[in-house]
Amino acid sequence: MTTSPAVQAAAATLADAAAYTEAVGTATAAAAAYYATGESTLDDDAYDRLVRGIAAYEETHPDEMSAASPTGKVAGGAVVGDVPHTVPMLSLDNVFSAEQLLSWTASVERRIGRPVEQWSVEAKLDGLAIAARYENGRLARLITRGDGSAGEDVSHAVGTIIGLPDRLAEPVTLEVRGEVLMTTEQFEHANTVRTEHGGAPFANPRNGAAGTLRAKDRQYTVEMTFFGYGVLPLPTSDADLAERMGEWPHSELMTYVAGLGVHTAETTAVAPRTLKTVDEVQARIDEIAALRPELPFGIDGIVIKADRAADQAAAGSGSRAPRWAIAYKLPAVEKVTTLLGVEWNVGRTGVIAPRAVLRPVEIDGSTVSYATLHNPADITRRGLRIGDQVMVYKAGDIIPRIEAPVAHLRTGDEQPIVFPEACPQCGSDIDTSEQRWRCVRGRNCRLVASVSYAAGRDQLDIEGLGATRVVQLVEAGLVADFADLFTLTRGQLLDLDRMGETSTDNLLAAIDGARTRPLSRVFCALGVRGTGRSMSRRISRHFATMEHIRAADAEALQQVEGIGVEKAKVVVAELAELAPLIDRLTAAGVNMTEPGATPPADADADADAADAADAEGGEAGGQAAPAADAGPLDGMTVVVTGAMTGALEKLSRNQMNELIERAGGKSSSSVSKRTSLLVAGENAGSKREKAVQLGTRIVAPDEFADLVADFLDETG
Ligand code: IVH
Q1: What's the predicted TM-score (pTM) here?
Q2: What is the DSSP pairing of strand 677-680 with strand 334-346?
Q3: Reduced to 3 states, what is the DSSP secondary structure of residue 97?
């Protein structure tokens, strides 16, 4: 079980002796279950929080401490084993920050009375410790860590662990220690095989390794991987070899075992490094942490060891952990949450991809509400059900994924996941001949949706271009994106079914009219991910022209209210992808400026200076100047409710919001303390009541029309 930084702050609070006794019971049962079958009833975070709560209670009530308490015991005291270790298999103490690491290295150096000659920095592999005894070069015995002084014989697993050869390159007698784990791929495979055999899936790779290592007499075998991280002589070792090994630095011992044919982390992206200074150590820690999301196996920290045998000997060991090594823990990246449902989304190429909707859960500082599910076969294979408790993995920027349902937490109320029978985007048939399901319309499926969206009332507002007409245009091969609308000819339209002269001319006029829409509408029509109508308006008012939007880097985009680091990156990437479309729209004479808006003061300079600034390592993003000229609604937050009348009668809610923002205000859909003004039309209901309660200023549509009269005629 591991401890994460989040856990440091969040220990369970135990109010009294009864709560303490219960917590000890829960934790020992969880540890016992975990070590017996790999199936814990708690995720790591929850277990650690509980144990910390127990430890905190014991600190203030030392005489109530229970003998069954998991605190201070290796593996929560859960393990039995009868093969003694020749040298104890110790655990590691933890640090959680650069500061803690610094004070730990300083304490080691104080203890040995000199600087540590060099440090070995390696990944902390997230599996189970195991000792592999080789006699005369042959793999003779596999033993788990157990309680550290004796472990369980798991020699039956020989042959299923990649990286532990039956025979070493030399006929030596020694014990290799290391971690057994399942790579992500091995884990996925193991669960496929298990569910095919009617078994319950493992919740995560570590449980998979724990369960598999202990399992005897299974009808099937699944693979695991060994990573060596230590080696020592056995009592039966050659005395000369034993003596020499006692003098080698840790790093050289590891090179030696790798040369004998044992797998180590040497061949991975997180290969051990020997480094001299704590700064270098910290830099490598940061590097390993950054590599974590991409690794094909799980790590839960970084291990820092004094490399030289003499330094290790001088530092010595405690009963639980050595004093010459430390684990720098990384935050937990998996949590258990509920699978609430599955959404089916149609991608640009017509692929129908399922997405898991989760009960929102905080993992590594971000809230996770969705996870990828690759395809329907993947759902079936993993036996997922709605209502399942699922183990979710999320590290860094990677898309969260469900590792597996936590099968033993099922209540029986879980429901099957229903697969769509028709394309959820356009209702056409689904091609299910391959693993990835696809709308039979392929790319045209999304095309119809995206062109219809672009032509919609709140975007380019092209009258007469409904979905059926778009399907017709797409199927006739006339439109492959919405820029093609602007080059349609009269002849092409007349050739279509149900297109007479009048409807053709009307449609052409409507399309022509769309050329003069404000930039905010055109930008919205692009359907940039993460931007809807109001975000499109904010971006357009801030930058004033498409050219300035396109010249903006992620940093400049963050000057727009509501755009954070992540969204800025998405917008930049999407705009790069949409560049050909935008170029064609520009060439077709579509307006690319926002009326009344002025570009940020230094934006032009920025665009020109961007390259130069890059070269100098300077900062390209600039200070934002307010984009809008001062208007009557400057600094005001305005909410509209009820039916508009008079000069505002024809305006849609979106157009009202556009008007508010042109006049310098901010539009909002709900009344709160921050609301400055409520425009209340006929049949205004609860929003009006709330505004009255809060004492918010309320105006009728006519009064509002007067207030913003100067900005009214630009609507449309
Ligand atoms: S050295 C006496 N190196 O982490 C030194 N341990 O929390 C003990 N682990 O029991 C271990 N990767 O199972 C070491 N590169 C690594 C490791 C590693 C994972 C595990 C090991 C240990 C546990 C302590």
Answers
A1: 0.65
A2: unpaired
A3: coil
Q: Give the model confidence (pLDDT) of 103-160 as tens digits.
A: 999 999 999 999 999 999 999 999 999 999 999 999 999 999 998 999 999 999 999 9
CA-nearest residue, atom 13 of ligand 1: 129
Q: Is 124 a catalytic residue?
A: yes
DSSP 671: -
Between 565-577 and 579-587, two packed helices, what is the crossing angle to 10 degrees? 60
DSSP state of 683: T
Give Dmax (Cα) for the chain. 101
Residue 473, Cβ density class (10 Å: 0-12 exposed, 13-18 middle, ≥19 buried): buried
- Tens of pLDDT, residue by residue over 169-214, are 999 999 999 999 999 999 999 999 998 888 889 999 999 999 999 8
Least confident of 75-84, 355-364, 431-440: 75-84
Nearest residue (CA) to ligand 1, atom 16: 124
245 to 253, 308, 440, 645, 651: CA distances (angstroms): 7, 12, 66, 90, 84
Nearest CA to ligand 1 atom 5: 90
CB-count burial class (<10 Å; 0-12, 13-18, 19+) for 588:
middle
Match 């590290």 to its residue by tokens: 395
Taking CA atoms, 656 is separated from 182, 194, 520, 524, 661, in Å, by: 57, 58, 14, 16, 9
Give the model confidence (pLDDT) of 577-635 as tens digits.
899 999 999 999 999 999 989 998 765 544 444 433 333 333 333 333 344 456 899 88
Share of the chain residues as helix, strand and coil, in percent rounded to the nearest 5? 40, 20, 40
Q: Evaluate the CA torsion angle 666, 670, 674, 680 in order and state its sign.
A: positive
Nearest to 86 by CA among 228, 226, 230, 233: 233
Query: φ, ψ for residue 134 (rounded to 5)?
Result: -105, 130
Query: What local confidence, expressed as pLDDT, does residue 40 receive?
Result: 66
Strand 119-125 and strand 174-181: the pairing is unpaired
In 309-429, the DSSP E strands lie at 325-329, 334-346, 352-363, 366-372, 389-393, 401-405
Q: Which residues line ligand 1 (CB under 6 A)?
A: 90-92, 122, 124-125, 129, 179, 229-230, 303, 322, 325, 327
Contact 471, 452 (CB under 8 A): no
Asked if residue 160 lies in contact with residue 222, where contact means CB atoms within 8 angstroms, the answer is yes
**Residue 480: alpha-carbon gap to chain centroid:** 33
**Domains, in order of start, for the chain:** 5-78 (no CATH), 84-329 (3.30.470.30), 334-431 (2.40.50.140), 442-514 (1.10.150.20), 519-597 (1.10.150.20), 637-712 (3.40.50.10190)
Ligand 1 nearest-atom number relative to CA 128: 13
